[in-house]
Structures are given as structure tokens and as C-alpha cells.
Design a protein that fits this description.
Blueprint (H helix, E strand, L loop, with lengths): L1 H11 L4 H12 L9 H7 L5 H7 L9 H9 L11
Bound molecules: calcium ion (CA) (2 copies).
Length: about 80
């Protein structure tokens, strides 16, 4: 499973992807499939609106990957805090 996630991160071609993927798994991705659904995002950040979720979902597949999470934070769409509550 870990190999698969690292491969996905490598395909993104971003130096920060590995770190972001790790953060994504530990903070958001409760079922560890490598992607964050709106429900998973709301688990960590109940205040995030669906509008923000879809704005962060730049490839419009209905899921956030590590890169989209990182960019969403940079653009202020997603909270930067990693702690629940
Ligand atoms: Ca997931
Ligand atoms: Ca996406």
C-alpha cells in the first residue's frame, strides 16, 4: 500500500508531494485510499464548505489528492491547521 502511494506521489512530480501524502494520510485520509473525499475532509475540518472542496478539486474527479490539498491550503481554500477541532 505504501509503495502505491509513493508511486502516486512520484507521478505528481512535486518535491513536496511525499510529505503532503504523508500528512494527507495521517490527517484526512481515514480509509487510506490515497484520496480525500468531502466526508473525510469534514471529519478533520467540519467548517470547510463543499464549495471550497470543489474549488480545491482542480481535476474535478470529486476527490482531493495530496497536491490538491497542498494547493488548497496555499490558496486559502482549506484550513492550514492539522489538528481536529
Ligand atoms: Ca480516503
Ligand atoms: Ca481531484
Amino acid at each position: 500500500m505504501k509503495t502505491m502511494i509513493l508511486t502516486s506521489a512520484a507521478l505528481l512530480g512535486l518535491g513536496t508531494a511525499a510529505f503532503a501524502a504523508d500528512e494527507l494520510r495521517s490527517v484526512y485520509d481515514t480509509d487510506e485510499d490515497g484520496y480525500v473525499t468531502f466526508a473525510e475532509l469534514q471529519n478533520a475540518h467540519p467548517d470547510v464548505s463543499m464549495e471550497s472542496f470543489y474549488e480545491a478539486d482542480t481535476d474535478a474527479d470529486g476527490l482531493l489528492n495530496a497536491r490538491e490539498i497542498a494547493e488548497g491550503k496555499t490558496e486559502g481554500l482549506l484550513p492550514k491547521g492539522d489538528e481536529k477541532g
